[in-house]
Amino acid sequence: MQPGGWTKAAGAALAFCGLLMAATTARAGDAERGRQLAAEHCTRCHVVGDINPRGGIESTPSFIGMKRLADWQRRYAEFYILPPHPALVRIKDVSAERDDSRPAFVQEIVLSLEDVESILAFARTLPDPAP
After folding, report:
1. What pTM does this model have?
2. Which residues pair with 89 in a beta bridge?
3. Which domain holds residue 87?
4. Burial call 78-91: b when 16+ CB within 10 Å, e when fewer
5. Is 76 within the bounds of a domain?
């Protein structure tokens, strides 16, 4: 190895680790941003913690109630592909544009994958449901 080769290799490895940590942190989502998004969009149908304890649609699971399910984190991470969400929500660069065969809503909800991660991060902050 050339002089300074180990130093360059170590520096490159540290830089890679820093990028990996930054990507992991970004993927973890921003819980406060998730709370804002949930308040703006999800409260139309769901009870979302203390944001709207008497709101939502009766037949729609609450955010805290969803945590009873073993796969609740997967459901939050993939909610936009689970009915009825595809008719309401579009994820930038993931979901297809809305076509004319879908029901007309006042406003389509357009989110990014980072927004989805933030909603999941917010859901993780909610208390576990009572047994």
Report:
1. 0.74
2. 109
3. 30-125
4. ebbeeeebbebbbb
5. yes
With a cut of 90, say whether residue 3 has pLDDT above it. Answer: no
Amino acid at 57: I
Average pLDDT over residues 4-10: 46
Residue 56 phi/psi, 5° resolution? 80, 180
| Structure tokens, 12 | 């490159």
Domain membership flag for residue 24: no
Domain assignment of residue 63, yes or no: yes
**Of 34, 124, 42, 31, whose CA–CA distance to 85 is shortest?**
42
State the total domains in the chain. 1
Can you give the pLDDT at residue 21? 42
CA terminus-to-terminus distance, the chain: 61
Q: Say if residue 6's pLDDT is above 60.
A: no
Q: 78 lies in a domain?
A: yes
According to DSSP, the residues that pair with 109 across neighbouring strands are: 89
- What is the rounded distance in angstroms from the CA atom of residue 128 to the CA atom of residue 126? 7
Residue that is written with structure tokens 């459901």 in the block:
75
Buried b / exposed e across 14-52, counting CB within 10 Å, b at 16+? Answer: eeeeeeeeeeeeeeebbbebbbbbbeebbbbbbbbbebb
